[in-house]
Design brief:
Alkaline Phosphatase, subunit A, alpha/beta, 40% helix, 658 residues, 5-stranded antiparallel beta sheet
Length: 658
C-alpha cells in the first residue's frame, strides 16, 4: 500500500511540478527566439520563471481528479501550451508583436496569414505536426479507456490540487503587488519577455476594455466636462480634411544602420521641411495597423485597453462611439473610408459604420490597380478614389485613406524594379530585406508627391494629414534610429487655408483633435478633452475617465444615453449601369454585358438566378447561358465584402439580351 502511495506521489511530482517546469523552459526559449532562452530566463529572473511555471502547473492540476483519463488530460493541456508557444514564435518572427488571446478573434484572417507568412514547406511541417498530435491524442484516449479503474483518493487529490492553486494565485498576487510582474503592458513585446509567456498570454485572456478610474462618479465626469466649450458654428472652417495612413512608413534617413544610394523619401523630406511636422508616437510596431488607425479616428488611447486588445475586434464589433466622422457630421461633412485591401479584414466592413462613416471603399470595389511582388495593392490607386470621393459631393469631405503597399514580408524577394539600392548596412543578413522595403517606400513616397500636387491644384480648401502607422518588422532597435524610438514614425500637415500649426511631436490619439482645433470645432467629449486638458497634469486621467464612462460606464458625459447610431454606410459608391447585353460573336453560349461601374465582385443575375460571370474590365462582363430567353431580365449585383454567399443589389436599370 505504501509502495502504491509512493508511486502516485512521484507521478504527481513528475506530472504537476517537473513537467510544468519543462514546458515553461520550452515556452521561454520559443518566446525569446533562442534555444537557451529558457535557461537564461531561469538564471536572470528565477522568480518570474517560477510564477510562470506555477501558472502552467495550475492548468495541469485538474488532472489529479482523474484516474483513467489523467494522462489524456495532461497531454492535451501540455499540447495546448506548446502549440500556443509555437504560434507565438511564428508570429514574433513575422510581425514583432507577440501572440495574444485577441488574435483568436482574427480567425477570419487565418488564410491570409498562412498565405503571407508560411512557405509551402513550413505549412507541410505544420500540417504533419497537427496530424501527429491528433493521432497521438486518439491513441492516448483509447488506451485510457482500456486502462483498469483505480479508486480515486479524493481527499489527497483535492489537497494536492489546493496546494498548487493556492501557491499559484497567492504567488501571482504577491508578484503583481510587488511589481515583479506587470499588470499593464506598456510595450507588448518587451512585456512578454519580461513577464514570461504563460503569464502574459493569461493576462490577455482576461484583461479587456478600459479600467474604471479611481473615484469614478457622475460628479467626476461632470467636473471634467463642465468646462468644455460648444462649437461656435459662425467661426468654424469647413475645408476638406484628408488623413492618409501610410503602411510601415517612416523617414528612412533616420536609420543609422543602413545607407542607401539616394534619399528613399524625397517628397516626404521636402513636404516635412515645408510644413508642420514631427515624430508620431504609435501604439504598435511591425503590425497592428488598426490600433494606430483606431487612435487617430477616435482620439482614444489603445494603452488604456487590454493588453494586446484590438478595439475593432472587441468593442466596435457591436458598439458605436465618438469619432472624427461623428464630430464633423453635424457640420455638413460626408465621410469616406478608403483602404486598398480587403474590407472584411479586422472587421472594417462593419466597424466603420459604428464609427459613423458614410462610405467605405475597399479593394473589392477598386479597379485598375497594380500589385507588388507580395500581392499588396500599390498605393497610387488611392489617388483615384480620393479624387472620386471629393468629386462625389458638393459639400465638405472627410477622407480617411489606409495604405497597404509597405506591408511585409520583405525577405526572399529578388525580381522587382529597383529605384534604390543599399550601399551599406550593419546587419548583412538583412540587406536584401532592407532594399526591398526601401523600394516599396520609394514608390509610396512617389504617390505622396502626386497626392499633394493633386490636392493643391483643386479649387477647394483642404487639410492633408500624412503619417506612418508603425515601423516595419525589420528587427530595428532604438539604437538603429537617430533621435527616435521604435514606436515613433513621422507625420506632416499640409493645408491651403493659411492655417498655422505648432511644430511638435504627437501621439496618434492627439492628431485629430489638433486638426479640429485648428478649424474651431470642439464637438465630442474625447475631442474636447484633448483640446482642453492636453497640457494639464490630469490630462491622461481625464481621458481614461471619459473613455470608461462613454464606452463601459454610466455615460454621464452623455446624460446617460449613447448619442451615436450606426450609420447607413455604403460599401460601394459606384453607379452600376447596364448599357447592352449582346451575344459574343462566334460563341452561341456566351453573352457580353456592356455598361459602367463593374468590378471583380460583379455578378450577372438572369431572372432570379446568378450565373458564372467573368470580369473583363469596368465596362465589360461576360457570362454563359444556354438557350437564353431574349426577354429575360438581366441585372448586375455585387457580392458582399468577405461573404461568398450573400449579395446586395447595386445595379439600377435592368437589361435584356439582344
Amino acid at each position: 500500500m505504501r509502495t502504491f502511495k509512493n508511486k502516485h506521489f512521484f507521478i504527481n511530482i513528475t506530472l504537476f511540478i517537473i513537467l510544468p517546469f519543462v514546458i515553461n523552459m520550452i515556452l521561454e526559449s520559443l518566446g525569446n527566439q533562442s534555444f537557451t532562452g529558457g535557461v537564461k530566463k531561469l538564471i536572470s529572473d528565477p522568480y518570474v520563471f517560477l510564477c510562470n511555471t506555477l501558472i502552467i502547473a495550475s492548468t495541469l492540476s485538474f488532472g489529479v481528479f482523474f484516474k483513467r483519463f489523467r494522462c489524456c488530460w495532461i497531454v492535451i493541456v501540455s499540447t495546448v501550451w506548446l502549440i500556443l508557444g509555437t504560434i507565438n514564435y511564428i508570429i514574433v518572427c513575422n510581425r514583432v508583436l507577440p501572440f495574444t488571446a485577441y488574435d483568436f478573434r482574427m480567425v477570419d484572417a487565418l488564410p491570409f496569414i498562412i498565405r503571407k507568412y508560411l512557405n509551402p514547406f513550413t505549412m507541410a511541417v505544420v500540417c504533419l505536426g497537427i496530424v501527429v498530435v491528433l493521432l497521438g491524442l486518439f491513441v492516448i484516449f483509447f488506451r485510457s479507456l482500456e486502462a483498469p479503474k483505480e479508486k480515486l483518493n479524493f481527499k489527497s487529490s483535492f489537497a494536492f490540487f489546493a496546494i498548487i492553486i493556492s501557491l499559484s494565485f497567492g504567488n501571482l498576487k504577491y508578484a503583481t503587488a510587488s511589481g515583479a510582474l506587470e499588470t499593464h503592458f506598456h510595450e507588448l513585446e518587451k512585456s512578454y519577455i519580461k513577464n514570461g509567456f504563460a503569464y502574459s498570454f493569461s493576462v490577455s485572456l482576461f484583461d479587456n476594455g478600459v479600467d474604471k478610474v479611481d473615484g469614478y462618479s457622475e460628479e467626476l465626469i461632470h467636473s471634467i466636462t463642465d468646462g468644455f466649450v460648444k462649437t461656435d458654428s459662425e467661426n468654424i472652417k469647413t475645408p476638406n480634411i484628408i488623413f492618409v495612413q501610410m503602411e510601415s512608413f517612416f523617414d528612412l534617413n533616420s536609420l543609422s544602420c543602413v545607407k542607401f544610394s539616394e534619399n528613399p523619401v524625397p517628397n516626404f523630406t521636402r513636404l516635412a521641411s515645408e510644413n508642420p511636422s514631427g515624430l508620431f508616437t504609435v501604439p504598435v510596431i511591425g503590425a497592428g495597423t488598426v490600433n494606430t488607425e483606431f487612435e487617430v479616428v477616435t482620439g482614444m488611447r489603445v494603452f488604456d485597453f487590454g493588453a494586446g486588445e484590438y478595439p475593432y475586434k472587441t468593442l466596435l464589433t457591436e458598439n458605436t462611439c465618438e469619432s472624427i466622422a461623428t464630430n464633423l457630421k453635424n457640420h455638413g461633412y460626408t465621410s469616406h473610408f478608403l483602404h486598398n485591401y480587403k474590407g472584411k479584414f479586422y472587421g472594417r466592413d462593419n466597424v466603420y459604420a459604428n464609427l459613423g462613416y458614410d462610405n467605405f471603399y475597399s479593394i473589392e470595389y477598386m479597379t485598375g490597380y497594380e500589385t507588388n511582388e507580395n500581392g499588396w495593392a500599390k498605393d497610387k490607386i488611392l489617388l483615384r478614389y480620393i479624387e472620386e470621393s471629393l468629386n462625389s459631393t458638393e459639400g465638405s469631405d472627410l477622407i480617411t485613406a489606409i495604405s497597404v503597399q509597405g506591408h511585409g514580408g520583405y525577405s526572399d524577394i529578388k525580381d522587382y524594379t529597383k529605384h534604390i539600392t543599399v550601399t551599406d548596412c550593419d546587419n548583412k543578413s538583412m540587406r536584401s530585406s532592407y532594399e526591398y522595403y526601401a523600394n516599396q517606400v520609394y514608390e509610396m513616397d512617389s504617390f505622396l508627391g502626386s497626392l499633394v500636387d493633386f490636392v493643391s491644384q483643386r479649387d477647394e480648401e483642404s487639410i492633408l494629414v500624412v503619417y506612418g502607422d508603425h515601423l516595419p518588422s525589420l528587427e530595428f532597435e532604438n539604437g538603429d534610429l537617430n533621435g527616435r524610438g521604435i514606436y515613433q514614425t513621422d507625420y506632416f500637415i499640409w493645408n491651403n487655408l493659411g492655417l498655422e500649426y505648432n511644430e511638435e511631436d504627437l501621439a496618434a490619439y492627439q492628431i485629430s483633435s489638433k486638426i479640429l482645433d485648428s478649424v474651431n470645432i470642439t464637438d465630442g467629449v474625447i475631442n474636447s478633452c484633448h483640446q482642453q486638458y492636453k497640457n494639464d497634469k490630469q490630462y491622461l486621467f481625464n481621458l481614461q475617465a471619459l473613455e470608461y464612462d462613454t464606452l463601459y460606464g454610466e455615460k454621464h458625459a452623455y446624460d446617460g444615453e449613447n448619442p451615436y447610431e450606426v450609420s447607413k454606410m455604403k460599401k460601394n459608391r459606384r453607379n452600376i449601369k447596364i448599357v447592352s447585353v449582346t451575344k459574343k460573336e462566334g460563341d452561341e453560349k456566351t453573352y457580353i454585358v456592356s455598361g459602367e461601374g463593374f468590378s471583380a465582385r460583379s455578378y450577372v443575375r438572369v431572372g432570379y438566378m446568378f450565373v458564372p460571370t467573368t470580369y473583363i474590365d469596368e465596362n465589360t462582363l461576360e457570362f454563359k447561358r444556354k438557350n437564353l430567353d431574349p426577354k429575360a431580365s438581366i441585372s448586375v449585383w455585387e457580392k458582399n465584402i468577405g461573404d461568398s454567399n450573400n449579395f446586395y443589389f447595386t445595379e439600377s436599370p435592368e437589361g435584356e439580351a439582344s
